[in-house]
Amino acid sequence: MYGVSQEQLEKIDTLLTDELLSIGVHCVIVIDTAGNTIAQLDKGKCACDVASFAALAAGNFAAVDAMAKLVGEEEFSLHFHRGESESIHFSKINDDLLLITIFGNDVSLGFLRLKTAEVIENINEIWGDTSC
Amino acid sequence: MGFINVKKKEVQIKIVYYGPGRGGKTTNLEYINTKYRERIKTEMVSIKTHGDRTLFFDFLPVDIGKIHGFDIKIQLYTVPGQVKYNATRKLVLKGVDGIVFVADMQRERRESNLKALEQMRENLLSHNKDMLKIPLVMQYNKYDLKGEGVELLTVEEMEQDLNQELKAPALEASALTGHNVVATLKKIISGTMIAFRKELQ
Question: What CDD domains does the entry give (chain B) (predicted)?
Fold first, then answer.
């Protein structure tokens, strides 16, 4: 069992709000690789069941990671699913955490990737040496 | 590994139902889903093959109320039992806090139980976890087949095969009728919570 401080969680929430929700992302979730939800923020536009989503996302990420290793890659760094009105982008924050964003057609994938790269760097600083 | 969210005042715990194929892991979760429908806010997630066998996992989140002001959220998973899906079983075990080993009481399934347990030990080791140290409950399933013309192993034989070294709490059960399904769940939740308390101390 592990935990992080309230201050760390608040900093992560602020970061996700300022950097991702502000550019039009509908929902952003930080999960660990076991499927636990660390943070979840949305603009009221995301009606999905977050616990189930986190479990499936962690499983999906782990499966793709295992596939990468089977073809001799260390990892596939971009996981992206495009839907008609909602798309999902997965990023690895570190060995323990994943960042998932759900966004509509009004957000450019390129801009989102730039933003998530910044957010990942900042979350790693906040997370420090917390180990899951 | 369980996560304590001090901001939301909640604890998330991962419990995995593990065991040989067609042993009753999914049936356990289906029974819990039906029995506690009013407490479960979402639908059970099942990723199945066309033949209705578990392909990846089943997932069922259950809220069990508060302890010391913290909401306890139990996340129940099953693994796919078929031999060929071991890579997937390993993935599902990542971060596990407690395990229910669902063994099949049918005599013809004796070897499958033993193989599944041995493979679970290896899979846990790949996550640096020791099977002897993780909270675990043994469930001897399909007790309802007694008297149905199917040859069953006795509880003593099951204990000797699977639980001599582990000495885990063990219950004979029927996932199909619900006999001891809830008792198994309560046992693993209390075992996991006790382990957490020790860890926090």
Answer: Ras_like_GTPase
How many folded domains does chain B comprise? 1
Give me the domain span that covers residue A67. Answer: 6-104
CATH code, domain with B41: 3.40.50.300
The two tokens of residue B11 are 């604890």
Give the Cα separation of B96 and A35 in Å (integer).
Answer: 10
- Res. A2 pLDDT band, cuts 50 70 90: confident
Domain that holds residue B58: 3-200
The CATH number of whichever domain residue A28 belongs to comes to 3.30.450.30
Smallest CA–CA distance from A12 into chain B, residue? B7
Min CA distance, B189 vs chain A (Å)?
14
- Is the pLDDT at B201 greater than 90? The verdict is no
For the entire predicted model, the pTM comes to: 0.90
DSSP B76-134: EEE---SGGGHHHHHHHTTT--EEEEEEE-BGGGHHHHHHHHHHHHHHHHTTT--TTTS
Q: Which amino acid is at A26?
A: H
Q: Do B12 and A59 touch (CB under 8 A)?
A: no
What's the number of domains chain A is made of? 1
